[in-house]
Design goal:
seven-stranded mixed beta sheet; 17 helices; alpha/beta; six-stranded mixed beta sheet; Glutamine-dependent NAD(+) synthetase
């Protein structure tokens, strides 16, 4: 066979950092060298790799655009060494506008530029704010005798017929750079999108996806290809960096069998076939990766969190140790008169199981000091939530003081159920820099805690065995802000609450629809009301890992001032 009958394509599933153009270029060069050692002819990188994705309003900065284009030009020159060609994503400013683009380089020069046509503007995406769509669809690029089509991410998701047009223009294979964020079961969605395009074009498609955490978004990798026969040609790992070289062979025997527009087909004869994690493992690893990248990419040496003896802080401690190592986590128990002996023991047992530092800082003096200072102002009023929240705010102040003194980022620990209905204290337990479980409902926190006690995820730095004491999982959850308090004093049972919230938040269902599922109408309307009035709190909450289809912040953008209620 001649060289053009065999094409070895490396997929660079890497973890870039937004704005670190020099670092991303260095990472791209390292991956190309790795691919060259493996005998690759071409390296496919992910969407806007040199900029990092999503770059958001950095794209509006001329100096940033110049730095990205220079990096692309320098990288193109590297290909003069006779090694692999490259397809790499970068923003490019042209007469037609600023485009989400790829540069295709080989032989020391740029042999093609392609611009994204379909700009997503929904959910977490806001590309129409900073990019202009490509002025026209350009055909495939001839790379060493092979006509390669390069649609960019959303170009294969929408209905603008980019792939179909590329096939009609003579493309033999489609290589797609992507920045597709994680949410639960997203891999199945991606596979279906690609299969639809393969059916329409008759062409095999390689889907290269970014890896890593960027603020609230998690890019899970899991790059793959679907062959012209609509079967999975290869599957790369999820949540792990990798440079995988895949071998594609020109198949003349089946000429024209799948698609009359093309006389030949490319078939993958060699590539990885990694196992994709199940639901709990995937969610846990997404939270772990998100916390690790947020801390490391923002330059924090270590983290601190309040360890209360409850399940939310326990799973956050486990995630922190798994993500960063036991030496980078400090936990602090801050007891008050309502803190139970069980909570003291459970917190200590959890810290001991994880091997992290554990300090006890009683909050009686600061709380009583606040109460004393407010005695005159509060005279004649009844004690209630205000006094309870003084405890939470004293704890928040202590954690922030530790953060200021030692440079530790505070990990905040509220789950999605609590954040939904405002069961959290501003400037108290909501204090912090990042929340790894912000998009997990309470019952999902329980499920992930049980999973972690039975498994150690790949790449985790924490120990095996029971790291979240069984008593923490089994006992009734409580904020312990008054005598004998439990969460269910104020909220519906969590299985009921979570189902109602998922209907309201993820599925935008009406009250009548939710009641038809078997829920009490008064409970549903109360939860809906709590969801709306807590918006002002959520606007001030720390960022956190996106796990569901609709997280608070990027996806669900409701007004703070809002009088709408779904009433008959």
């Amino acid at each position: 066979m001649t060289q053009t009958d065999i094409l070895r394509i490396a997929v660079a599933q890497l973890n870039p950092t937004v704005g670190d153009v020099a670092g991303n270029l260095a990472k791209a060069r390292e991956a190309r060298a790795d691919a060259a050692r493996q005998g690759a002819h071409l390296v496919l990188y992910t969407e806007l790799f040199l900029a990092g994705y999503p770059p958001e309003d950095l794209v509006l900065k001329p100096a940033f655009l110049k730095a990205c284009e220079k990096a692309a030009q320098d990288f193109a020159k590297d290909t003069a060494d006779g090694g692999p060609g490259v397809i790499i994503g970068t923003p490019l400013k042209r007469r037609s506008g600023t485009h989400n683009s790829i540069v295709f380089a080989d032989g020391g020069k740029i042999i093609g530029e392609r611009y994204k046509l379909d700009l997503p503007n929904y959910g977490e995406f806001d590309e129409k704010r900073v990019f202009q769509a490509g002025p026209e669809l350009q055909g495939p690029v001839n790379f060493r005798g092979v006509r390669i089509g390069v649609p960019i991410c959303e170009d294969i998701w929408g209905d603008v017929a980019v792939c179909e047009t590329l096939a009609e223009s003579g493309a033999e294979i489609l290589l797609v750079p992507n920045g597709s964020p994680y949410y639960r079961a997203k891999i199945d969605v991606r596979h279906q999108v690609v299969i639809r395009q393969v059916i329409e074009t008759g062409l095999p498609m390689i889907y290269a996806n970014q890896l890593g955490g960027q603020d609230e978004l998690i890019f899970d990798g899991a790059s793959f290809a679907i062959g012209a026969d609509k079967t999975l040609a290869f599957q790369m790992s999820q949540f792990e960096e990798a440079v995988a070289v895949t071998t594609w062979k020109r198949n003349r025997v089946a000429a024209g069998a799948q698609n009359g527009n093309n006389s030949e087909h490319w078939v993958c004869s060699e590539g990885p076939m990694s196992k994709i994690p199940e639901r709990e493992e995937a969610d846990y690893r997404a939270c772990m990766l998100g916390l690790r990248d947020y801390v490391n990419k923002n330059g924090f040496k270590n983290v601190v969190l309040g360890l209360s003896g409850g399940i939310d802080s326990a799973i956050c401690a486990a995630l922190a140790v798994d993500a960063l190592g036991e030496e980078r986590l400090r936990t602090v128990m801050m007891p008050y008169r309502y803190t139970s002996k069980d909570s003291l023991k459970d917190a200590e047992d959890c810290a001991r199981a994880l091997g992290c530092r554990y300090d006890i800082v009683p909050i009686s003096e600061p709380v009583e000091g606040f109460r004393h200072a407010l005695t005159q102002l509060f005279e004649g009023t009844q004690e209630g939530i205000t006094e309870e929240n003084l405890q939470s705010r004293a704890r928040g102040t202590i954690l922030m003081a530790i953060s200021n003194k030692f440079g530790s980022m505070v990990v905040t620990t509220g789950n999605k159920s609590e954040m939904s209905v405002g069961y959290a204290t501003l400037y108290g337990d909501m204090n912090g820099g990042f929340n790894p479980i912000k998009d997990l409902y309470k019952m999902q926190v329980y499920a992930l805690s049980r999973w972690r006690n039975a498994h150690v995820p790949p790449g985790a730095l924490g120990p095996s065995g029971e790291v979240i004491p069984k008593n923490i999982i089994d006992k009734a959850p409580s904020a312990e802000l008054r005598e004998n308090q439990t969460d269910q004093d104020s909220l519906p049972p969590y299985p009921v609450l979570d189902d109602i919230l998922e209907c309201l938040v993820e599925n935008e269902m009406g009250v009548d629809e939710i009641v038809a599922r078997g829920h009490d109408r008064a409970t549903v309307t109360r939860v809906e009301h709590l969801l709306y009035i807590a918006e002002y709190k959520r606007r001030q909450a720390a960022p956190g890992v996106k796990i569901t289809r609709k997280n608070f912040g990027r996806d669900r953008r409701y007004p703070i001032t809002n009088r709408f209620r779904d009433r008959r």
